[in-house]
Structures are given as structure tokens and as C-alpha cells.
Design brief:
Elements (H helix, E strand, L loop, with lengths): L1 H12 L2 E2 H12 L7 H13 L3 E6 L5 E5 L1 H12 L10 H7 L6 H28 L7 H30 L4
């Protein structure tokens, strides 16, 4: 459901092709809801079939530009206004950490090291995105995009610090 809403939300901001949307995902939603090319193009086809988006232009080599329809905007607004249907937060990484005691300590150490390195890589990636985007303060969309990216930066920083802390504690066990 969230990929559907993410695509609708980006198209509500401005029309675009599948390629345009994929780039916007990479630049603005990477920490919120990542999407692969195949996932996004499949979702665009479903949205069009449901009448929530429509092709607004066809360019060279059959490049389709999509825009949100009135029905799509209504669906997006309905979803935004009612978060009660959201699934509970689940973290496979944290579940894995919870169960690390089942592994030999060196394997647990390797898992925690990988988790720290992944979080540090994400922090670097989010920092590059933050530093490469000319953030405007003119629109609410800019503000909320920047706020979502800031959440990703802080979460990655927290996760990296937490994983390094857990590694330091491990020898004491």
C-alpha cells in the first residue's frame, strides 16, 4: 500500500515519467520507502488501471508522463488523513539482534559490525542527498521532504551509534 501512496504523493506534487519518479524516490524518499524500477513500473500500471493516475503525455520512444487524477488525489488525501490502518512497525534487523544469542559470539560480533557499517553507509548516503539538493523553503513539500530526510539522517546516526555501543558491550558478556 505504501508504494502506491508514495507514487501518488510524488505525482500529486508534479507529473512525471517512471524514470522521473524513480529519481525522485532516490533523491527524496530513499529513507522512507525505497523502490526498485520494476516495483515502481508495476505500481504505475496498477494505478493507471485503477484510474488513480493517467498518461498526460507520450514522448520519444514511448516515454509516458503520468499525472494524478481527481480520484487519485482523493485516495491520497483519504490515506493521509487516516493513519489508523497502518501496520505495526516491524524491524527484521532488531529481531535478528534479539536472537543473536543463538550464534557463537564471533558470528554475533560480525552481525553487529555489519549492522553498524550499513547504518554508517546509509548516513553517508543521506548526507550526500542532503548536501546535493538545493533545499528551498518556499513550499511545504520542500519542508516535509527535508523533514523526512532529517529523520533518516538521525535514525542512521542513532543506529550506527547503538550498534557500536552493542559491539563494545559484547566482550563483557
Amino acid at each position: 500500500m505504501s508504494l502506491r501512496m508514495a507514487a501518488l504523493g510524488l505525482l500529486a506534487r508534479r507529473p512525471g515519467s517512471g524514470y522521473d519518479l524513480l529519481r525522485r524516490f532516490e533523491q527524496s524518499m530513499a529513507n522512507v520507502w525505497p523502490a526498485t524500477q520494476s516495483q515502481l513500473y508495476a505500481e504505475l500500471n496498477k494505478l493507471a488501471a485503477a484510474g488513480l493516475i493517467e498518461v498526460s503525455a507520450v514522448g520519444a520512444r514511448g516515454r509516458k508522463e503520468y499525472r494524478i487524477t481527481a480520484a487519485g488525489r482523493a485516495e491520497l488525501l483519504r490515506w493521509l488523513a487516516d493513519p489508523s490502518g497502518d501496520p505495526p512497525h516491524r524491524s527484521p534487523r532488531l529481531l535478528r539482534v534479539f536472537l543473536l544469542g543463538e550464534l557463537p559470539v564471533e558470528q554475533a560480533r560480525a552481525q553487529l559490525t555489519a549492522l553498524a557499517e550499513h547504518a554508517e553507509a546509509e548516513l553517508r548516503r543521506f548526507t550526500r542527498i542532503r548536501d546535493s539538493v538545493p533545499w528551498g523553503k518556499d513550499t511545504e513539500a520542500d519542508f516535509y521532504s527535508r523533514a523526512a530526510l532529517e529523520y533518516g539522517l538521525r535514525a542512521a546516526e542513532m543506529e550506527a551509534g547503538w550498534a557500536r555501543w552493542a559491539l563494545e558491550q559484547l566482550p563483557d558478556r
